[in-house]
Amino acid sequence: xxxxxxxxTPDLNKLRPVLFWDTDISKIDWxxxxxxxxxxxxxxxxxxxxxxxxxFYSVENxx
Length: 63
Fold this sequence. Notes:
This protein has helices spanning 34-44, 47-61. By secondary structure, it is mainly α. The chain starts with 33 loop residues before the first helix and ends with a helix.
């Protein structure tokens, strides 16, 4: 069985909480809610936030 070798959450200091105004950002299941998170960040995030999410999920998918 492959062990997951990526962070469970992206660096929350680099994501504006306003992106997730409707939820407690500390309670997000980053794996389960992946599609919604990517959509939200790419609709409302700035360049740095989009880059952060792209890097976070590309590391996850490289396993």
